[in-house]
Amino acid sequence: xWKERSLGLLAPFLGxxxxxxxxxxxxxxxxxxxxxxxxxxxxVELFKDPFYQNGPNDQGIGWNILNSLARVGIGFGMAAxxxxxxxxxxxxxxxxxxxxxxxxxxxxxxxxLAWLPIGLLVxxxxxxxxxxxIFISSIWPMIINxxxxxxxIPQDYLNVARVLNLSSWKMFTxxxxxxxxxxxxxxxxxxxxxxxLVIVAAEMLxxxxxxxxxxWDEWNNLNVEHIIIAIFVVGLIGLLLEQFLLLLASxxxxx
Amino acid sequence: MDSSKYVQLEHVDMVFSxxxxxxxxxxxxxxxxxxxxxxxxxxxxxxxxxxVLNIVAGLLNHTSGVALCADREIRGPGPDRGxxxxxxxxxxxxxxxxxxxxxxxxxxxxxxxxxxxxxxxQEALAMVGLTHAxxxxxxxxxxxxxxxxxxxxxxxxxxxxxxxxxxxxxxxxLTRAHLQDELMKITAAxxxxxxMVTHDVDEAVLLSDRIVMMTNGPSATVGEILKVDLPRxxxxxxxxxxxxxxxxxxxxxxxxxEKHTHKEAA
Lengths: 255, 266
Hints:
The structure holds 2 protein chains of 2 kinds. Chain A is mainly α. Chain A has helices at residues 2-29, 36-48, 61-92, 94-107, 116-123, 126-151, 155-163, 168-206, 211-220, 224-252. Chain A contains 10 helices and no strands. By secondary structure, chain B is α/β, with parallel strands linked by helices. Chain B has helices at 49-57, 96-108, 114-127, 143-156, 173-190, 201-207, 236-240, 243-259, and strands at 7-18, 21-33, 38-42, 64-69, 72-73, 81-84, 161-165, 193-198, 210-214, 222-227. Chain B is globular. The interface between A and B is medium-sized, with 17 and 22 residues.
């Protein structure tokens, strides 16, 4: 038992070790790229004071993270508020499905950043434009997964609803919602992943306080250690968001 | 109202439209069922016995003919007809209590207090002997118990007619026998009219007042109706050696395997 567990930890440890070794090797042959040691030292320095404020273009890493998370939260939240109900409607009503399917198929493959100019044009400001990009890129997985979930509700449950003559409200709360919840949660998880993927790129273009702009700023300062740190921070937060939603989904599991 | 015709099917046809064109599942089904009667529908698979049941349940609309329950045309599902599904169809996210309560709530919430609704739910679960499991979820109980909850859910609506679509088909022989005995007790106590679909000859003879034997589809219809004149309460052990019982049993077998052998099975 103890042996198995330590073996289970060994593989990921070896993977990380290999990664760090490879990184050291590349940085040793390429002096422009900082190695793990100098990056670590820089990170320790950076996280000593994560919430300093030194004017709009020089703020602590903590502020950058919180600002990026806030944009994702707002954009993703609005996408959920619109996308999940739309998913329910097109999953339930064939007419709306037929009506919206071509639009969804057309717009879904569009690269998120292609929406940025439209956002800038309509909102005239960088901040809502960035949120708009998050909104439009994270709405599709939620619409599609919810609609699929609704259309896959077993006929048995629908027959039960008919035999019990359930009201529309009871039908929704007791059958539709619980039966589709796993699909909705999958959509939410995919959407958050997309949103977090897109935010760095969007912020690079729109500026302001946030991880993406920070990366761009440090590139202009040629502070490559900070760029590498940003990559790890983005990855780690993405991982945490994913894990949190997986945990939430397993808590909400209905079967 | 003529109580010998509580459920009435006259000249009922059922045509399904399929990709290969119309499929006539039922043709000229005529059947009168008296109040309080226990009827089984038996026949080979694909003979449309579930279709007949679903027409009475209001889940399917017959193509032509007349389907009446208590002299009223059947236009959809209603609380006067409780349905027990083949695969229990409990909602997995609700406890046994809540599954039954959902049915009670729909039928009686307008006229009764919360306490009365709760009591009805508990009574229905007690009737199938599941008081101890009321707070369990369906995936925490056995297949036989799930089917009991399904029966409790149907009974809790206090329907006049209980419609059962092979309710014990998925259960092992011992559990099935046990539930058959309980069903006989429940129907004796409540005087429900029951229509049950089955493919089990012993089950049909043991439970029924009349056995409706259906011909093979397509265009299936009622072949013969066998009146089972055995006194109640019936005891499966005593009946095993009863010549009348075995005579009925042989009649049904003869119908199924001599007169209407399933084409694919032959």
